[in-house]
């Protein structure tokens, strides 16, 4: 049976002044699916995520549906309530933008739950579950963000998003600012999260790093100058790219990985 999309974009366009940044984008993300969006800087990737959050306005004729609800129609109090419900959560490229530098990690992770007046006992339970999901030791909770490595900070930021039990996780360049070892840990944590949560959580992962996306995504969407030029199963897109821009991205990576049932397997880039 075909699953109803959790996220559906119909003819999504976004203008910054006279410049069209996204041009009639249509895509879906289904429950349990990890969709990677890849493209160079300036291709419109981050704008796409911000549009889903309603952090930027979309052009007339655009539709953004989350759980079949057209969120482009929300205004004022309705929009605030939808955001606070936590159905969609955003993870920044730089975790210091979401983790208060002067607050211990333990408090930062459950801040959203306190605002939602979740009991202390329930907040502690959810925090422990989120830490386990991202593979982060509880002994790090007493530190401030500066006391963590880059990879640990990013996993703490992901845990902070998870505690509110979102249906959709938006990750904007989650590994681009990390060294190779930290990048590998975060990618593995996201793969484990995908496998553990199943249909309870979908992810839209935005990156210019096609290698990392190949390791964790089910589908790959290629964005070029605000338009989707390719969209298909990750393994097919990597092994048989149909658009010249996709081939260019793949050829720039010496070794990339595509997901298998158990673990990533190496696939050499096309020459």
Q: How does this model look, in words?
A:
The chain has 271 residues and is of the alpha/beta class. It has a domain at 7-87 and 166-268: Rossmann fold (3-Layer(aba) Sandwich), CATH 3.40.50. Helix content is 35%, strand content 25%. It is built from ten helices and twelve strands. The protein has helices spanning 45-52, 76-85, 105-109, 111-115, 120-134, 150-162, 180-197, 210-216, 234-239, 244-251; strands at residues 7-16, 19-29, 34-38, 63-66, 69-70, 88-91, 168-172, 202-207, 219-224, 227-233, 255-258, 265-268. It has a six-stranded mixed β-sheet with strand order 6-7-8-3-9-10, with helices on both faces. α5 (120-134) crosses α6 (150-162) and α6 (150-162) runs parallel beside α7. The radius of gyration is 18 Å and the shape is globular. 43% of the residues are buried. Residues 260-271 have low confidence and may be disordered.
| Biggest sheet descriptor | 6 strands, mixed
Q: Uncertain runs with pLDDT below 50, 5 residues or more?
A: 260-271
**Second CATH tier, the architecture of the domain at 7-87 and 166-268:** 3-Layer(aba) Sandwich
Strand content: 25-35%
Helix content: 25-40%
| Gross geometry | globular
Give me the number of helical elements. Answer: 10
Q: Enumerate the strands of the largest sheet in spatial order, edge to edge or round the barrel.
A: 6-7-8-3-9-10
CA-atom Rg in angstroms: 18 Å
Mean pLDDT, all residues: 87
- Give the class from helix and strand content and strand pairing: alpha/beta
